[in-house]
Amino acid sequence: MTRKLLRLSCLALLFVSGCGQPRHRADLVFLNGAEPESLDPAIITGQPEGRVVYALFEGLASLDAAGHVKPGVAERWDISGDKRTYTFHLRHNARWTNGDPVTAADFVNSWRRALAPETASEYAYQLYYVKNGQPFNEGTLKDFSQVGVRALDPWTLRVELEDPTPFFIDLCAFSTLCPVHIPTVEKEGDQWIKPGKMVNNGAYRLVEWRINDRIRLEKNPYYWDKQHVAMQTVDILPISKAITALNFYISGIADLMMDKGLVPPALLSDLKNKPYFHSAPFLGTFFLRYNVTKKPLDDPRVRQAFSLVIDKQLLVSKITRGGEHPAGSLVPPGTAGYDPPEGLARDPDRARKLLAEAGFPGGKGFPILNFLYSEGELNEALAVELQNMFRNELGINISLLRQEWKVYLNSLSSLDYDICRSSWVGDYPDPNTFLNMFVTDGGNNRTGWSNKTYDGLIAAAGREVDTKKRFDIFRQAEHLLVDEAAPITPLFFYVGIQFYDPTRLGGVEANLLDEHRVQEMYWKK
Asked: How does DSSP assign 49-88, residue by residue?
């Protein structure tokens, strides 16, 4: 083991130093998992991208180290008595990296861009809570002046909502609602996210982005709160191999491991006893998606059969082993006090009966389907175990297909898969962040599933102001999602894992959103 680590350490050193060329080490180096698909706040959909984007861009609100919402570009806000109108008062000293002031008009234009159909933002639905946001995004409303966001003056933004939305301030800290510098976007086109071209308003600026090597950030001298940003430079390394990530951390090349998928499963039992190992539950669920546009997955009995043969307890005890709990629901229990339905319990006999009713007794005549997963040892181990379960219990053969992160995300978005591994981390602490994405044509639906009853229930929950009644409606919707129609199968609830030395590095705290923003981090004296 020692010799192996030594060899890996040499390889890691070459990786970070750029084929042997000496390089100044950043104040903070962290391992971020996959190479980001983009750095455009309106386009990104994954956690690896979000960790970078939240260092570069800031919305009306932000999050502290504990994951609590706090003022961002807006220093304060007023909420009307009916909870439908928000008035944000922007900081006069908020600046873009080129020195331009960040104004209310920047938010109006950025939200218009995120909602514009041609932008193709999968997260555009996060702005559907704004009056007329949905019809504008769907193209049925052409006049953006009818959308409920307007600049009253350079420092005052007025937002009108369709209905009272208890988590709207949390949404204002979310990436899709962050402002972008529209003149730069219009001038540079798709290249605006590159170093030397990007103009942004967050705590850091982008100085280097070398694909599959590193992203280098430097402290933004124009950031309004720069006196509280401790790290002058930050390197973000896109490492997808767990053993490589572990070696980078142990050898001191990296200070922090941020991605839960970068823990070698075979070493987890030993690593859990190390002082640098930190884990805590958060609002995240690992689940399967079924492409219901493809036969025979268009039959809910087939999807239910897959769900009923999965031994979720075995997955968390044999494969993940990080303290995860089996999931019957998509929404983690206790999310803002919500009590989710129990979901489908393991029942192989019922599964085989359903499969026979669907025309495939004992799996006979069932076509070979692809199981899509993104790279990573944990994902591969889970895929192999699920493949065995489907074969042993149902007589169904599943072909495994592994893809690099960007390709995998594109396959999901284009429904170019049969069954796939998926995960979801709550964007805000409310059941809606999990359930709203499966409405018809939802940007993050990615199953092809459509159900008018489900759509109606989610819409009704959005209008309901009584919390108990609202949660009752959500429970009906989730029962339909995970029990009856089953376009997804929840497998387990995540446990967040990080590697860092708590005696040296501060500003990394366990929180329900698994959000750890580098501008909150500092070295202890």
From this structure: HHHHHHHH---SEEE-TTS-EEESSEEEEEE-TTS-EEEE
